[in-house]
Amino acid sequence: MNCNNHKHNYKFSRRDFLTKTSLGMGALTVGSLISPSSLYSQSNYINNRLPHFPAKAKRVIYLLQSGAPSQLDLFDYKPLLNKLNGTELPDSVRGGQRLTGMSSGQSSFPLAGSIFKFKKFGKSGAWMSELMPYTSQIVDDLCFIKSMYTEAINHDPAVTFLQTGSELPGRPSIGSWISYGLGSDNKNLPEFVVLVTKDKFGQPLYSRLWGNGFLPSKHQGVQFRSGKNPVLYLDNPPGVTADIRKEQLEYLKKLEKINHRDVGDPEILSRMSQYEMAFRMQSSVPEVMDVSKEPEYIYDLYGKESRNPGSFAANCLLARKLIEKDVKFVQLYHQGWDQHGDLPNAIKVQCKDTDQPTAGLIKDLKQRGLLDETLVIWGGEFGRGSYSQGTLTKTNYGRDHHPKCFTIFMAGAGIKKGITIGSTDDFGYNIKERPVHVHDFQATLMHLLGIDHERLTFKHQGRRYRLTDVHGEIVKEILS
User: Fold this and answer.
1) Which pTM does this prediction carry?
2) Which of 8, 12, 230, 343 has its CA 20 to 30 A from that of 268?
3) Residue 302: what pLDDT?
């Protein structure tokens, strides 16, 4: 055996050999009947069957509020908490539920009513806090789910669970699953783009939250940043022209084809497609990131911070531009909602940053006729508790993590307008009506895109995985 053949055989494990030899003839037979061109591509094999049914949404903008906003100070009005302010949380309400290490040592759990005023808005009569005056104006376009719940009590596993369907790192993110299942509508931009508010601090955000996990790497989210270089390492180095870069890619493509022929690793082709995408993005990204031609009324709609690149408001405006270019999934991350203490002051800052841009985005999509085909989601990874963490005063309190109930809202494609589903008890501590698990939310999101969450799977290490793991039901009450 010569050296080259020895190296070639070394790249295949015993598992690879058994899989290829025992299933090879059957795969060839089935593949020839289905689609010869997709014989060796698991991604194409699935994509040829997608969407599973007509989609109501073509694109998604997900406004993730990292750190968990207090639903009790924004959406879930509980007058009993104000009436019983300072009294102990009844044991019968808590029911022995687990607390975090930050408040489990407290000797007292005084109920904390919100110091903010609530009022009903719109024809739907949705309760909204005075903290969100702009969002209050569009409640008749929104669908509130006030009975969300999750399984994780701390931030990292909770946001990982929300984004990947598992508390353990390593699974593909929602955007990656959608990219894998539906592909691209614009070959010059990624299917999945991530925008993170600059200069905001709070719970750490990791790139694995928008990572591809075990899916091919071309499905990972691509982060666009503010500043001169929106995508890292996209620009050519000094002295390298576009023509030189194109020629380099052509030669690299030839080499990678030879490598793929010898090794058979599909990730080689995936990597090559990323190189080619990066080359096309050199012209497409500067164009989509340029907001200088936006009219004055657009800046007024999103708020003055929309002129500040990297702010939440500016990212909302960019999200609209990206979906206009047929980017499939745009996710905005905004940190700073983890308010264990000094909540009244801290939440004012957060709402000032996010309220007007959120409402402005939905209004802008609506006036352009884009809201009917774009799903907008707003929410965090869990909720906040109804008792005060730390000392309770007339003007100050904190709230600890609370996974048992929280609120999100949605708007746009396939969603009923002006409704609220689910409710919590008078203490805002337990779900009273229509529980909605994180996997139910994920299943519904995928359904709106024409995907059956039980059928979109990927085989990894001998098991077929999906975003919703082993359960998840569509929330049919919110579908239009």
Assistant:
1) 0.86
2) 230
3) 98
